[in-house]
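Um, can you check?
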Amino acid sequence: MVVGKSPAIGCLILTHLNAGPVLHPPDRQADIYGTLAASGRRRVASMKPEAGPLESTPRRVHANILETIGNTPLVRLNKVTRGLVSPIYAKLEYFNPGGSVKDRIAERMLESHERSGALRPGGIVVEATSGNTGVGLALACALRGYQAIFVMPDKMSQEKIQLLRAFGARVVLAPTAVPPDDPRSYYSVADRIVQETPNAVLADQYHNPANPESHYQSTAPEIWDQTQGRVTHIVVGMGTGGTISGIARYMRDHGHAVRIVGVDPVGSLLCEAWRQGGSAEGLRASTYKVEGIGEDFIPSTLDLSLVDEVHQIDDAEAFRWTRRLVREEGIFCGGSSGAALAGALRTARGLGPEHCVVVIFPDSGSRYLSKVFNDDWMREHGFLVSQRGRVPVGQVAEARGQAALITAGPEDRLLEVIGRMRQHAVSQLPVVDGEGRLLGLVSEVELLDHMLNSDHDHLPNETIAGMVNDQVSVAGPEDPLDQVLPDLLNRKVVVLTDAARRPSGILTVIDALEFVASGSGE
């Protein structure tokens, strides 16, 4: 067990021990672990007391708290990814000293203002922030002797507000539901404070090139090194865009064929702007509850041309995955991490074992105890359904893990279908036509009955065409459980389809049983 985090040791052990066979072929694991063990013995031996003061070294001792930023662990997700073939690894940014990914950008932004001469000794740093950037800046300001003023939207959690004040910062709240150019918006209020305050600068995470540059220099190479170049997809929540743009540019500049996936909350305009080729013309944002991602304008630190795909995630889905993360994986993250996980699960569907998905978890759940992890707050905003029968069946089906849907075609060979069932540990497969529309269901019981009781030899090219059961119950993912339950109890399985009868999932009796037994939906 690794206690605490050392950039060179704690992260290294966490990375390799959680990586599993995906990152290390079996014939290399013994060598890797043997090398780690030997290295650990040498380090322990080197800690014998010696005369004189301890020297500051990258491995054991840090000159100040800022030196502990970065080298966050990469941890494989296991329970929430059940049914997926491609592994998903989470980069846990709450291991940074300020508890979020924003620690990485704070010092570089201050340095950029110091180099320009705008920030002088005894100066005041002002920033419009959802909280995490403020904490990172507060750390850096404390060490560099600057005062700090942070302007926050009034939807932010009390934990974030109190945390910033604990660092001695002044916190100013501004209304959330106003356009960015409104004089009451937190962007405008921050600008006005800078104009009215002598020796003050705006850190300006939305337009400061030091933001994406920080991730180009640190986050991106860490991911590449930790996965030993095996990463194929990187999933990042989009806000200021510094994280996703810096990582994407690094991968492109170094010739790494990595697909960059953005995650945007429903209500933000960034996803639609990406679809419009980077233009926000004609777009208008609406309110949403998840904090730290999404915007109502396009920051200059966000380069949407570097993003390959974008998933939109609503508040309810983001918060549901956030709560499951801590209960099933022991990973205590904020709501934006739940949104990122939802995007990563969508990305991983259909990917094979040769792929490797990395998702960024930006911050800690400790900042959302009064919101995402407060049942009363969740019920008040409609995110906890008090009656199980009203829960959408899609939510019930995915409660056991977001499984990739495996299908068959009527002309697939019998032996291939049996092998597919065995490989993916499923007992039935939806059968679809060439356009992906549902034709019926084939189950292991029907296949076994056919092989035992049919009056013909089973040739290698025999297909399942005659074994498909077209008497299948279907439902939409948004249909309530109480409406679907009678069919489920009668048929034992319900196929979830869209309006065109294209299947998206399967609901079984055991899915519903586990959902109810776990207390979900209360």
About this structure: The two ends are 35 Å apart (CA to CA). The longest strand covers residues 147-153. Residues 152 and 173 are 5 Å apart (CA to CA). Confidence is low (pLDDT under 50) at residues 1-51.
